[in-house]
Known about the structure:
Number of helices: 25
Largest sheet: 7 strands, mixed
Structural class: alpha+beta
Strand content: 25-35%
Amino acid sequence: MTFDRSPQPFGIVEVLVDDDGRPYDAAYRYLNPAMAAVTDHTVEELTGALMYVIWGGDPTWLDHFYEAAYEGRVVQFESLSDMLQQFFRAEAFPVAPGLCGFSLQDVTSWIVPAQRSLDKAGAGLFFYDMRYRQLLLTDSAREQSGVDTNYISLAEFIELTFGATAGDDLLRQMENFLNDQTSLYQEGQLPDGRWLRISLDHTGHSERFAYGFVEDFTRTKQAELRSEQYVEVIDSLGAENFALYLVDLDTNELEVYRRGDDDTAQFALVSEQEGDYPAAMERYIDTYVVEEDRPRVRAEVGPEVLWRRLAEGDADFSVGYRRLFGDEEQYVELRVIRLPQPSSKVILAARNVTAEMREQLLQKLALQNALDLAEHASQAKSTFLTNMSHDFRTPMNSISGFASIALDHLNDTDRVRDCLRKIMVSSDHLLNLVNDILDVSRIESGKLSFNEDAVDLIEVAEDVATMFGDKAESCGIDLTVNAAGLAHGRVVTDPLRLNQVLVNTVGNAVKFTPAGGLVTVTFAERDGAPRGFGSYVITVSDTGCGMTPEFLDRIFMPFERDGLGYANKTEGTGLGMTITKSLVDLMGGEIQVESTVGRGSTFTITLPLRLASPEEAADEKAAPAEECRRDFTGCKVLVVDDDDLSREILMEILKDYGFAVEEARDGDAAVRKVASVAPFYYDAVLMDMRMPRMDGDEATREIRALDRPDAASLPIIAETADAFEEGQRRARDAGMTALTTKPLNTHALIALLAEYIPEKE
C-alpha cells in the first residue's frame, strides 16, 4: 500500500538466468502505478511481462539487476531511454535470491535551464552517454546540426555532420575526453559548406553522462571570412600603393591608413596628426606636385569635385600627375575609391607609376618605329612596283622588238641569229627577276629548303672567275679571284644557294664599279671551327661608287636600291641583298658590309661549313655533260602539256633530234593514250606538272597503276615551272623518273632522255 501511493516509480523484478547461470531477461513481479505510468501502461498490463521481450534496448539494466538479485549489492546507475527519449537515474537493491527492487528518477529536467539559455544563444543542447557513446539531441540541437533524429550514436553523428575526414580527428578528441575527463571543443566546415561548433564538458551531476552544445555558426564565420578578405584587400592595396587614406567628404576628415617606409614615406600626403583633407591636399600640391601639373590636380581632387563625380556615378577613378622626388620627377597615380553607399567616405590610394609610364613611352616609341617601318615598307613596295614595271618591260620590250626585227629580216640569217641571241639574253634576265621575287616570298614564308651536296670551294672560285670574267673585261674592270687561303676545299653545302650568294655580291661589285676599277674576291679559312667543320670567309671588295651611310642601314631591306645615281641606270628588283642576307643567315653565317662613297665597298661573308668526308667528296657531282649528239630516230615520246605553244616548242625540239612525237593536252588524255597502245610503245613521256582536270603527278600515278609490263619502267620526265625542292619532291613522290624545269634547257633535256632511253639496236 505504501509503494502504491508513492509518486516515485518503484518495482520488483525476477532476474531469469539460463542453465549456465547467465541472466537473459527480467520479469515484472510488482510495479506501482508511478512505474507503470513511465511507459504509459497500467500495472495489470506489465505484471508478469518480460522486460526485454517488451522493450529490448540497453542490456546495462539487466547486468545491474543481476548484481542486486544474485550478488546482494545495491547498485546505482544512470541510463537513457531510446524509446522514451528520457534520462534516468536508477537504484537496484536485493529483495530475495533472484529478486531485486528498483526505483527510477527522471533527470531529464537537469538540462532544461541550460537548454533555455542555449536556445537564446542559438545553440542546441545534447546529452552524451560516455558508456555507450550515444547522444540524445534536443530539438534545437537537431536543428543546428541538421540531423533528423533525436537519439544517435556518436560515430553516426560525426559521420553525418563533419564527414569521415574531420570525424577522425573528432573521434580522437572524444577518446581523450573519456580518458582524462577534460573538456572538448571542435569547430569546422561541413561537407555541405556550413560551419558547425561542438562543445562538451563534464557535469557534477553524473559520472556517466556529459552535456554539450552544438551551434551552426555559418553566418558568423562568413562574416569573419569577409572581414579577413577586407583586410587582405587593404593589405593588397597597401602592397601596390605606397599610401592609403580614408577621407570623409561630409566632415573633410583625413585618416592615414598606411604610409610607406624609408624613401617612399616622402610620397605621403600628410603627417598622422593632420586630419583636414582640403588643407592637407593643398599643402601637398604646393610642396610636391610639379608646378605645371598643380592647377589640374587641384581641379580634380577638391572635395566639391569628388562629391560631384560620386553623384554622377564615378565610384572608382584616378588622377595622374608628376611629383617631385628630390630633384627627380616621378609619375604618381592617386586613385579614388568610394566605399559602399550610403557612406560619404572614399579611399585615396597613391602609387608610383613611373616604371609603367616609362614602359608605355617605350611601347609608344616601338609602335612609332613599327609605323615608320610599315610606312617605309609601303613606300618601298610602291617603289618596287614602279621599278618592276620598268624592269620587266625593258627585257619584254627587247624580246618583242628583236622578234619583230627577226620577222622582218627572215632572209638575213646573220641578222636573225643576232636578234635571237639578244632575245635569249633578255629572257634570261627576265627569268632572274622572277626568281628573285619568288625566292624572297619563299624565304618570308619559311618554305625555302636546302640540299646538302659535296662542293669544292676551289672550283666554286674558278666558276666565279669564269662567270664574271668576260663581263668585267668588257667593262674595263680588273677582276681577281683568290682561293689560296683554303686549307680544306671540299665541304658540304647547298651549291645553288652558295652560288646565289656569290652571284648577288660579285655581280653587284662588277655592276657598280666603273671602268678602270678593281674587284677582288677572296676565299679564306680561319681557325677556331669545331671539329669536322671549317670557318670560311669570303670577301668581295670593289673600288666602285660606294654607298651612303643612310643606305647602309637599309641595304638588306626588301626593294631597296641605291648607287648614287646609278639606281635608275641599273636593272634589278632590289631584292638581291635581301635574299643574300637571308640565305647567309639560314646557312648559319654572317654578312657584314663596309662602304665609303666614291671609294668602294667590301662585303665579308662568314660561313660555318661541314667538311666533306672522303665518301662524300668521291660522290661530288660531275660537271654538266656536253651537248648530246645522239640520233634518236625511231624513239617515240608522248608530250603532255595543256599550253599549246609550250607543247609546240617542245615537239619541234624533239623532232630535230629524230624523235617520233605524239601529244596529249591533259593528264587524263595522257593516261588514255598510254593505256591504248601496246606495252613499250612509248620510249618516254614528258609530263607537265600543272594541268586542268588532272595534274601531272596524278596522271603519273594512274600510269604507274596500269596493269601492263612497262607501267613501272616507262621513263616519265616532269617538266615544271616550279624549280623548288617541294616541286622536285612532289615529282618523286608521284613516281616520276626525273625532272626538268621551265624555261627548258634543251641540252639538259636531251641529256636526260639519252640517260633513260636505251639506244636502238
